[in-house]
Amino acid sequence: MNLWFLGLAVHATMLLCQLTLPGSLGISVIRSIGVWVMLLYPPALVVILLLFLKQQELIRTKSDLHTSETWYRSLFEDTFAPRLILNPADGRILDANQAAVNFYGWSRDELSTMGVPDINTLSKEEILEEMRSAAENKRNYFEFRHRLKDGSLRDVAVFSSAVQLPDRTILNSVIIDITEQKEVETRLMHALRQKDSLLQEVHHRVRNNLALIASLIDLQLEDTDTPDREKSGLKITGSRVHALSMIHNLLYQNEDLSLLNFTQFLRVLAETLPAAGGKAGSGGIEVHGKDLTLDVHYAMPLGLMVHELLLTILGESDDGPGNIRLRIDFYRDTEGVYHIGFRNTGETFTSIPMLNTDKSLSRELVKQLASQINGSIDFLPEPDLLARISFSRSGEGI
């Protein structure tokens, strides 16, 4: 339209120029050119220019389409991963690249006449449901079993993206063969099941052996010929065996035999320790703290440490069992260091040899156990705080 008005403006200028000529000369020029030529020349020129510009635009469009087609073919064809263009409405295969031809074994023409149900082991209804999920962008990753031309089955991972066309939606799907990965996963799962079975058997046998040792100790305690001094030592040893057996019982109940809910262990120990030889009295032991899980590498020596401390505190107080009330706090600080505090919530203890002398056997045993987990133990660090165990699972920060 702009060219049309431009042509009219040029033509009007020409007419004005002709009108400024002397009368006879202007009329002579108009006659020699012709009235119709002067009237039709501007629109004809504009039409020619429009056709020329349209032709140039068409040439550019064809060039852009050719470039786009070249890029698409390069991205679609020149890849090592099989790619399929699918119609999610009916599951038909619209196109396949050479990598897909090499993977499935069918030619491109054969694949173009097939549908996804011909290569996928799922039912057609299940396949169409999954394709709808991809077309609606609900999911873009799938794992299937695909059938090859030779009849073999392969595990594949499919990445599908929806492509919106003017008249429909298609799926651009990339297929990755994960058969070997699945086989490795299967072998690893089998190995893990074997390991779990072995660990369960080990814990089972350890539990039985500990129960046997405890029974032998009980028999020796019932022997009237055993001196009272030896019976006292046997009771302490039997209590230690009981603590180890308790840890193995809790581990045996877990799905992961390498981890122990240590807070739960503390609660069970607090409830059962009096029956194992301690003197908790009416006040007993309170356990405070969130459930925290420890690796068995830490749980075993730590469990023996806690047991030894409780057994010694409860058994060696000179104030009698009725005055003994303990609170155990188990927590992890902001730096990742674990702490177990033993606080007296009853009357003040007048004498506990373990806490006041370095020559106690129990004190030396606890120190040795603390060194196994790169931890530390402090006796009487604060008023009413009888002892505190500190350790880090990485062995740092203590």
Automatic annotation (TrEMBL):
Q: Where is the PAS domain?
A: 68-111
Catalytic EC class: transferase
* Enzyme nomenclature, EC number: 2.7.13.3
Cited Gene3D superfamilies: PAS domain
Q: Which UniProt keywords apply?
A: ATP-binding, Kinase, Membrane, Nucleotide-binding, Phosphoprotein, Transferase, Transmembrane, Transmembrane helix
Q: Give GO terms: molecular function aspect only.
A: ATP binding; protein histidine kinase activity
Put simply, this protein is called histidine kinase
What is the superkingdom listed in this entry's lineage?
Bacteria
| Membrane-spanning intervals of the chain | 36-53
Catalytic activity of the protein: ATP + protein L-histidine = ADP + protein N-phospho-L-histidine
